[in-house]
Specification:
The chain contains six helices and 15 strands. By secondary structure, the chain is α/β, with parallel strands linked by helices.
Length: 268
Amino acid sequence: MHEKMKIAAIQMISGPEVGANLVEAERLIAEAAGRGARLVALPEYFPLIGASDAERLSAREADGAGPIQAFLSETARRHGIWLVGGSLPLVASDPAKLRNTCLVYDDQGRRVARYDKIHLFGFTKGTESYNESLTIEPGNKVVAFDAPCGRVGLAICYDLRFPELFRALGEVDLLVVPAAFTETTGRAHWELLLRSRAVENQCYLLAAAQGGEHPNRRVTHGNSMIVDPWGEVLGRMDKGAGVVVAEIDPARIAEVRASLPALKHRVL
């Protein structure tokens, strides 16, 4: 039987020093746990947003070993929480690239899921340009796991624009989306996409974002939020570092799906 459970989205403004980012992440995780959250999610690239791709490549860890992964496991165990580790750089099969990976640890510090970002961001407008495919090797598997609150599906940032990924997860109770949306695209589409994914899948959605101006002058949109299955925003943080907490209630999911059984009405 799934349980009511407080969940938390952590918002950060990560910089180029992994150690400093881990200290900040620990502070915010402790705050979330202190407010009763039992599942906590960090943002995309929580351990490092540097001035160059080379900095991210140099921070790569082998799967299952490294200070960032040790931090996530130990922090989850110490606070007794389920911890969705935003994303971190792992070694790829291509030695010139990395995997942008979300790892999940249970309340005993055991790793229960790994998701590698599938869709790689590309955007050019004026002087603003991004091409993740130059340094990131994409994943190819959708990933969900079971937690006390129910079935949890994973996606990272740009994945949000591809609803077929979320359909491929099957019926889930919670979607967790770590992100580092740019201010340009976030201002236009972030909330719209989050609420759409929650409504069409009739589940809760937790989005943990980077939010502010980083030392490398990149500006991320922030607006970490938790959305319910009817598309209502239960909590939000605009810019800055902090924590958003709300409760996931299985009865609310059941109520929405019973009154509007859209998932059962699917044809294609």
